[in-house]
Amino acid sequence: MTRRQLSRRWVAALTALAGVAVVICVLATVEAGPVAPVFFWRPSEGADVLLTKQQYEWALTAQQVGRLAAAAAAVLALAVIALTFRARKAPRAR
């Protein structure tokens, strides 16, 4: 197996993992809702929300999972870009 083929396999695997991380981030963002937003935006004023302690803790957990998944997706995307650049820069013939 050549270096280029190996890089392409790594790119495919990391792209799939980044896609999974993005899906997890989206699901966590929806689950956290306006109570504990994953990203830094303010909930709309006048929207009163009544939650139990368990629901609030679940929203905070979803918030943390969403932030970790967003960070993982960003790191994996950077790795895909670096590997793609490295594969294209590899010598074509020896």
Question: How would you portray this structure in words?
Answer:
The chain has 94 residues and is mainly alpha-helical. It is 71% helix and 0% strand. It has one domain. α1 (3-32) runs antiparallel to α2. It is elongated. The two termini are 15 Å apart.
What layout of secondary structure does this protein have?
Elements: H1 3-32, H2 53-89
Helix pairs in contact: 1-2
Class per helix and strand makeup: mainly alpha
Q: Report the portion of residues in β strands.
A: under 5%
Number of domains: 1
Residues in helix, %? over 70%
Tell me about the largest β-sheet. none
Outline: elongated
Q: Provide the succession of SSEs.
A: HH
User: Ranges with pLDDT <50 over ≥5 residues?
Assistant: none
Q: If you average the pLDDT, what whole number results? A: 82
How large is the radius of gyration? 19 Å
Q: How many distinct beta strands? A: 0
Number of helices: 2
- N-to-C terminal Cα separation, in Å? 15 Å
